[in-house]
Amino acid sequence: MKKFNRRVAYMLVTILLAVNCTVLGSVGAAEAVKSDSRPTPVSVAGGSGHGVAAWSDGSVTAWGYNKSGQVGDGTSIHQLVPKQVAGLTDIVQVAAGDNSSFALDKNGDVWAWGDYYSPYINGDPLLPFQKRGGLIKLEGLKDVAGLAISNHGSVALHKDGSATIWNPTFDPNDHLKMTVKYFPIKGVTNAKTIVVAGHEALILGKDGSVDMLTVYNSFYDRFRLEREFREVKPLVASSITGIAAHWYDVFLLHENGTVLRWNVNTKQQAPAVVKGLNDIQEIRTGSNRLFMLKNDGTVWQWNYNDPKAKPFRVKGLAGITALWGSKGYTGYATNQDGKVLAWGEEKYQGSGSANENDGNPVMVQPPLSWTVNGQTVSFYGSSAVVKGKLYVPYTSVFEALGIRVKRGQSNPDPKHGNHRFPVWSFSYGGNTVSIKSSDPAVVLVNGKVTREDASVPFLANSSMFPLELITSKLGIPMSWNKTTGEVILGKTP
């Protein structure tokens, strides 16, 4: 029947392109084809304060907290809007530690950046105190099929079902010299997924079984040597389809849609079923949070370390096709339109949205590309999206546009206790836009006060300026495609 339906669809394709069919609704066929051509997310992961995503075109984007270089842009500047990570192609999975990022390519090679992997670089003329090293290839990992990141040792699952643990170490005589140690996990074969909880590696087999192996020697405070590994211990015999862990808590997804919980530090003999959880098809963890995707496309969350907390549905998430977790308080989901959504109790790891504090899920912004007078421009500082409008630091596109930026100070303001405020002036073509950084901000065009609603927020360690307002008042053309992220400024060839 499916083959017959495909043949019929193929025969009628010219008709479907000519009419507004019910499948496409009000969207034209040409627009649908264009939409389908955009990259879609294939893997998303979150650290304690940053996010990273792999896309169907093999590219990787990252965003958020960046003090360790975990965004991968070569800086330690926080990035509120995602940036594409240069040097990565054909990526099929991403993963994240607290302050580190990892990418797995289709050849089975693994790349790392961020904490431990991207050291500070001194003496850079543009970024004297904010330059970080770039990506490194983990040479000891080959033919990798999947990654699991943990503070107790990260695990690479190989295509043949075996596994390797790796961890960065530092030379005791040179704390800046980092090396990565690798060793195979003895006794692991035919594994589907592996997670690390506490000192234990939990191995989900392709047959639905779950086994356990101690990988850390707590007596000597180091990972076990290969000769020290003991026999793998069975935990669950069969019927498990998914596994997730955070610190010492382990969650198992049963094939019947229920969830089991187990803690490696307790004397609990076997995982126990969590009451009230049914019809679950996917599980992920955050910091003391369990995220669950149900069969009906809704997402549920359980803050399990609170004894009074009960699982609740995350409002605003429907039609979800994939679920992703983090090391922090943020969850990620992919909807049927191929968009990445974020939610959590804190800032959603720099998703680039001004709605992060209202409790509702937000769409993670696409990376922005900048063209000024027909030339591609890039800059280190972060851009931002505030109340649906685009903001940039002064060290961004203004110089490329030929705009002169000057910082001054206002006269004492009696409405604000005679306080003096910074005044930023942007001059171009004989016109000047000035913004007094009071609350609310005051906008002047050629010295005359306007009624413009504006602000100069301090974000990512920089004052941010309303780009659309400034360019419009100075007569500079600007367009921003919010779907593709393309920003075009000034004259076009």
Structure description:
By secondary structure, the chain is mostly beta strands. The chain has three domains: 2-32, no CATH class; 41-363, Methylamine Dehydrogenase, Chain H, CATH 2.130.10.30; 369-489, no CATH class. 7% of the residues lie in helices and 42% in strands. The strands form twelve sheets. A five-stranded antiparallel beta sheet has the order 35-36-37-38-39, with no helix packed on it. The protein has a four-stranded antiparallel beta sheet with strand order 1-2-3-4, with no helix packed on it. A hairpin with a 2-residue loop joins strand 36 (422-428) and strand 37. The longest helix has 10 residues, at 2-11. The chain is elongated, with a radius of gyration of 26 Å. Residues 1-35 have low confidence and may be disordered.
Write a concise keyword list for the protein shown above.
Methylamine Dehydrogenase, Chain H, 44 strands, elongated, 3 domains, single chain, mainly beta, 5-stranded antiparallel beta sheet, 493 residues
Describe this structure in a few short sentences:
This protein is mainly beta. It has three domains: 2-32, no CATH class; 41-363, Regulator of chromosome condensation 1/beta-lactamase-inhibitor protein II (Methylamine Dehydrogenase, Chain H); 369-489, no CATH class. Residues 371-488 form the Copper amine oxidase-like N-terminal domain.
